[in-house]
Amino acid sequence: MSKPIVAIVGRPNVGKSTLFNVLAGDNISIVKDTPGVTRDRIYADVEWLNHKFTLVDTGGIEPESKDIILSQMRDQAQIAIDTANVIIFITDVRQGLVDADAKVADMLRRSRKPVVLVVNKVDNFDRQMMDVYEFYNLGIGEPHAISASGKLGIGDMLDEVTGYFDPEMENEEESEIPRIAIVGKPNVGKSSLVNKLLGSNRVIVSDIAGTTRDAIDTTIMHNGNEYIFIDTAGLRKKNKIKEELERYSIIRTVSAVERADVVVLLIDATEGVTEQDAKIAGIAHERGKGMIIAVNKWDALEKDDKTIYRFTEKVRNTLAYMPYAELLFISAKTGQRLPKLFETIDMVLQYQNLRVQTGVLNEILTEAMAMQQPPSDRGKRLKIYYMTQVSVKPPTFVIFVNDKELMHFSYVRYLENKIRESFGFRGTPLKFIIRERKEKEQ
Ligand SMILES: Nc1nc2c(ncn2[C@@H]2O[C@H](COP(=O)(O)OP(=O)(O)OP(=O)(O)O)[C@@H](O)[C@H]2O)c(=O)[nH]1
Ligand SMILES: Nc1nc2c(ncn2[C@@H]2O[C@H](COP(=O)(O)OP(=O)(O)OP(=O)(O)O)[C@@H](O)[C@H]2O)c(=O)[nH]1
User: Fold this and answer.
1) Burial degree of 306 (CB within 10 A; 0-12, 13-18, 19+)
2) Which pTM was predicted?
């Protein structure tokens, strides 16, 4: 299933962060007023009735001068148009309708993306409704009055947002053609890779920073199989401050990863593995995607017999939360190990879809428990009744136990390792759900 993306766009101080936090719930609620504090809160998973979506905040405008605000808003809106399925355009009833709003509204209208116009800070519906009607003039539909901080009008707004979701997309079962997202920092070689894989020049590559184009899906045939590559390259770099660039690249990554079965994270061999790489990898990890780390520009490195070993160690340390990820050393320039990349993608796809029968799983479980007893606490021992695999992509297991509290993270890890010893599941994260069951039901 691929989750829709909803982007919030709006001028500084209209209440984007507040709305974001209300929608994202308790999990992400950094209260602001300190510039920089909210920077990391860029996306969140939201559930409304039967709908799930990923919310992204395109924010991060520094209110320096009006000209800059408008150009930054345009950038925000462009990112939203490029990546989102539905756009929430948020305005402020107290500031009223301003010129920048109208300009951005024009841009959004032309994009033909569904836009939900929201007028925030309507703390008193009776008294402020007349002011809300003014926003009809934007020509992008009916304004929704809300109070983000007062949590008013949020339900109606979400009804409209989720009403635009494509039911086919939400219920999408298995797609026949696997989708591979190529992600990584700017300049790491994403376009070069897709270009090389394609073997022609349909994807534009440039040495000049500032090549503009939208994310492209490229269908590539290899050994008679089709693959769709989702490429996040070509972010505009002109006039962007570093943090802004990073935010944009993260939003695009989230949207590409969301649609993918397998993620190929490119790391620049000439720069080593960085904090930003770890952040990007985290997005794929959280979303349970198949994971391949490809260290690119391997041709450009002076190597001795220890180089690959040292590099491996560094990557594994920095990305310690994903020991399952496959690791490859490639060159998009020379084509080194690109056939191996396809083999690895095929393997990871298989493991993402592998189902293990309950009988076999429980043999592994029994043996594992015999070798290492489940933990106990204050005289009470964890009992594990059985385990079953409930889904794939990522493979997800439910473990039935007598008392959830007794189930230790380290014991789950131990069981995971036992499953991997038998089945591999290379390149794919495994998910475990612990459920309690009364002994009598046994
Ligand atoms: N009265 C009222 N104030 C609100 C409401 N929602 C947000 N605010 C206030 O508006 C101010 C700006 O809110 P933020 O959520 O930080 O706005 P923002 O759009 O994220 O701002 P930037 O990060 O600068 O882009 C804060 O002081 C909020 O408390 C509302 O519904 N009613
Ligand atoms: N030596 C070497 N250079 C490479 C390799 N792959 C890419 N490059 C160079 O790295 C630079 C950036 O490559 P791009 O493919 O444009 O990188 P990108 O990740 O698509 O960049 P953005 O569009 O900024 O996201 C170009 O100068 C490429 O020629 C490689 O395997 N080896």
Assistant:
1) exposed
2) 0.73
> Quick check: 203 pLDDT over 60?
no
At residue 227, what are phi and psi to the nearest 5 degrees?
Answer: -135, 140
Residue 318 CA to residue 330 CA, distance in Å, equals 19
Q: Judge contact between 105 and 25, C-beta under 8 A.
A: no
| Number of domains, the chain | 3
Which CATH number is 158's domain given? 3.40.50.300
Indicate whether this complex's ipTM tops 0.90.
no
Q: What is the DSSP string of 88-128?
A: EEEEETTT---HHHHHHHHHHHHHT--EEEEEE----HHHH
Domain boundary, last residue among 142, 170, 198: 170
pLDDT in tens, 86-106: 999 999 999 999 888 898 899
CATH number, domain containing residue 402: 3.30.300.20
Of 219, 322, 221, the C-alpha closest to 267 is: 322
Residues with CB under 6 A from ligand 1: 10, 12-18, 32, 59, 61, 120-121, 123, 147-150
Pocket of ligand 2 (CB under 6 A): 184, 186-192, 205, 207, 233-235, 296-297, 299-300, 331-333
Q: What is the pLDDT of residues 310-338, one digit of tens each?
A: 999 999 999 998 999 999 999 999 999 99
Q: Quick one: 75 and 96 in the same domain?
A: yes
* CA 266 – CA 190 distance, rounded (Å): 7
Of 135, 170, 205, which one is at a domain's C-terminal end? 170
Give the pair of three-digit tokens for residue 245.
Answer: 């660039």
Residue 296 annotated in ligand binding? yes
